[in-house]
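User: I'm new to structure prediction. If I give you an amino acid sequence, what do you actually give back? Let's try with this one:
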Amino acid sequence: MTDVSTLIYALTGLAGLGLAALVGLIAFGKWIDLKHAELTALRPQEAASPSTASRIELADLRERLRKLEAIAAGVDL
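Assistant: Good question. You get back a string of structure tokens that encode the predicted 3D arrangement of the chain. For your 77 residues, that looks like this:
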């Protein structure tokens, strides 16, 4: 008798663990979808109107990159 009740407890625990894992997996998928929607909603705003500060920063990064490439090539500025 004890062997059967132990088996029932083990199977019930395993089923509960499986159910909890399934619910967690579904919740994680929904969370990923939410984050994807948030990122998609932010993209058009950023791409629509780049500010002057971001343009200046991009130009500065391009200048730094040009200087680093010159240093790597061995050209003296």
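You can read the tokens as a compact description of the fold. Here is one thing that stands out. The radius of gyration is 29 Å.
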